[in-house]
Write a structure and sequence with these properties.
heterodimer; A: alpha/beta; FAD/NAD(P)-binding domain
Amino acid sequence: MSDPQAHVVILGAGHAGGTLAALLRQYGHPGPITLIGEEPLPPYQRPPLSKAWLKGEADADALALKPLEFYAEHQIDFRPGVRGEKLERSAKRVHLSDGTGVSYDALVIATGARAIALPIPGADLDGVMFLRTAADAETLKATIGPGKTLAVVGGGYIGLEVAASGRSLGAEVVVLEREDRLLARVACEALSTFFKGYHEARGVAFELGCEVVAFEGSRHVTGVKLADARIISCDAVVVGVGAHPNDELAKDAGLDCARGVVVDLQARTSDPAIFAIGDVAHRPMPIYDRMFRMESVPNALEQAKQAACAITGRPAPVGETPWQWSDQYDLKLQIAGYAFDVDEIILRGDPKSAKFAVFHLKGDQLQSVEAINSPPEFMMGKQLILNRKPVDKARLADPTVSMKEVAA
Amino acid sequence: MAKITYIEFDGTEHVVDVKPGLSVMEGAVKNNIPGIDADCGGACACATCHVHVDDAWLTKTGDKSAMEESMLDFAEGVDENSRLSCQIKVTDELDGLIVRMPESQH
């Protein structure tokens, strides 16, 4: 493509869309850029909403990717409070929720994902919340505190981060999880056991293997009803049971979709004039020789780079190791890679010391590492996953051998 | 405001005013200065905001935490002036600070 005067329209002003708009200018794209966001705020970081921001350690200015003035100063037409309704590919035009339309030369779908709601009675009661947007986080922060009980439905990363922040704010917290262990879909058993113990020692209660059947209350939620008829009393609920890609606009327009909008390594969809990036994209990951959809900031940034390079005619970015992080209490969890096709798990360090790493291997190749308060294991693991170098398992399992020596 | 000079690997200089309270990383990112990726937004989780602090400013930028030291150990092209810019808080004291970016943040 690389038409300098191309009008780039970005649908979705989250971390991916906001980053792309800024990168296009950084890479010297002189043509018009329109950034369309459903929320009233300019692009901001979501990860702190369940962590530093919720605990009052970061303010709104710190959350913003760029100050509001940035967009006007860089001739980026930022249009908040508007969403794309219909994509007319033959006319290269998007119809918007405010009744207007916008024509594009390149369109980037960066519409993200939305929190999955539980289809049970009481789901619309006041005090039953999600944590997806800054507005959600404001509501949650205003609701919890000393003397309040917060019920968290879903023992995934969001749920556990909210639980930790809730305790820091003085609330009682109970986490309700359907599976018989925490983080069941995303982490190994060693990590599940470790996190449960760490949270319990800080006052969080858990109900595992339980099914939530209703939220109780007349206007505001007062409890969560379980399948065994027990009612867990609470003042607020956060539901964190996963997210669904906002890919309807793309589907309706006939773009190839799988578990999200299908793209190539340039973030290009089945229509060469249309890209999809971030949580909404179903993308190839060459080191695992497969395609999947990721929900993480590093993925949003990488795909923003891929699309920006394709649009401005730059060479594509070099390959990456996908990664993510989580902060709970004084724990820093850093995860590199995904545990696909794993036949062996190696523990390095002692979980009792809250400083250890779990390595997932396929043969002698590292597929993924989960590192708790262990930056060397994370940093070196990330490189080993990318360069596919065979690993000496005995040395990896021995914490007295440094990670630099392991990788040497 | 503190005036901070960010110098890209190719020598391109960016001089910007940064509000005290922000980090040196945020000063670069919010002004769209290339060369500092800051993937994790300042959580000290990624080491993609590596900078070399000018000799004259080393003591004023303070000490590294164990976590920062440990992350930096695995970044590329590290020397004794290396810092993670998300861990340097901007104060009036840092008016005039000069930092240089490495060739890449990977």
